Structure of (apollo) hypothetical protein:
Amino acid sequence: MQSPYDKFGLDKNTQDFTGHALALYLDDSYLQQPAIQTIHRIKLYSDSLAWYGKSPYLYHMYGLGELPQSFARLSAIYYGTYMLDKPMDEIVLGEDGKEVGVRKENEISKCKQVYCAPAYVPDRVRKKGQVIRCICLLDHPIANIKDALST
């Protein structure tokens, strides 16, 4: 991705905005990856912006409750079943240790994949890090960030 930036003479601020605000990359490692991946991400952002209006994000317009709703709609398009607020007793595993469904009493709902909060399967997850997002208004520069344009 660095090559197109250089070819078109984009300054560092524009590169940072494009990579982090439009393509939503968390760090600069994408600069060493094929440009087509970034182009696809920017196109998705642009298509979402064109679809939803002032923001490419549903939750800004309709609240956080719209996120599970959008997943439910997408699931329906691809013939999936989306189960909301359905209590369960356990996630049923196949012989190979992969999820094959969820069980509530004698009823088993079969599936190819289970997506759930880590609290449902504490023995199958391990914490690798933590994301903290906040807005801070400071009256001084932040120490030890070198020449980073955003932190």
Observations:
- The longest strand covers residues 99-104.
- The two ends are 21 Å apart (CA to CA).
